[in-house]
From TrEMBL:
It comes from Anseongella ginsenosidimutans. Residues 63-272 form the Xaa-Pro dipeptidyl-peptidase-like domain. Gene3D superfamilies: 1.10.10.800, alpha/beta hydrolase. Keywords: Signal. Residues 1-22 form the signal peptide. InterPro entries: AB_hydrolase_fold, Polyketide_trans_af380, Xaa-Pro-like_dom. This is Xaa-Pro dipeptidyl-peptidase-like domain-containing protein.
Amino acid sequence: MKKLTLIVALAMSTVDSITVNAQSTQKGRPQNPWTLVYDGAITENVEGKVNIHPVTYKISVIEIAANVYTPPDYDASQKYPAVVVAHPNGGVKEQVAGLYAQRLAEQGYITIAADAACQGASSGEPRNVDKPANRIEDIQGMADFISQYKGVDTAKLGLLGICGGGGYALKATQGDKRFNAVATLSMFNSGLVRRNGFQNSELATVQERLQQALDARALEAAGGEVRYAADIEWSDEMADKMPFALYREGHYYYHRTHAHPNSTFRYTMSSLPDLMTWDAATNLELINQPLLMIAGSKADTKYMTDEAFSKAINAKNKEQRTIPD
């Protein structure tokens, strides 16, 4: 999978302006038959070009909704490398995960992007549960499905995780050696941030927030309402005043320029104990596959990529690529 490094970097360069600057607009964008909202999305399946195939499959009792992308001139009797794409926190397969899946398919890969369990178009209650164990199982479930897809060379299976999906990709790769290479883009360590706050901004309230989460869990168990964290509708003015570019730019991408009705930042408050006691940057010495980690030079999330990369001491052909901002 040495080629994965080059291909992901190429895909990165083609969409850098979208994921970092989010300057395009939804105004005038025609309705997409698959509700894809990323720029340059497929609008019809044309013979000889990249095609999209909506699929569903089960992980335990949860029905997962996913999109498989096949490369130009796809021939099921041939063998192709494949890439599993894990979406950001709050994102869905029709947004940036689908963008990367399509771009990689254009380069000859069979790719899959799926909505996490209890999120997007996937089933599961309560809605928007966001637990690390579930997200890792989502990634492994994508690997299960795509490994059986006609034309996939299971000896050439890669994993790309974006933002929060990047943290879960690192953890999935530690134990799942079906992934022959792993790449992350602007990796976000969900456990670290839910515990300490972004850039350690909430250290003083760790125990208070844990108690609130446990109270929410008790309420759910008693049949009461499901309480949600980050359940706030921001105005543009509120977003502009946020001290972190991650949240400012995330607001415009997910709520304005590339909004999708299934995408939301909110998650069940009862998920917090699982998140706060988890960390993407532990046991990274278990990764012995090739590792590529990409981040912007001025990204305020870069500290998470730096830490994880330094701890992945056994990764083969390890590379950290910094994109100039």
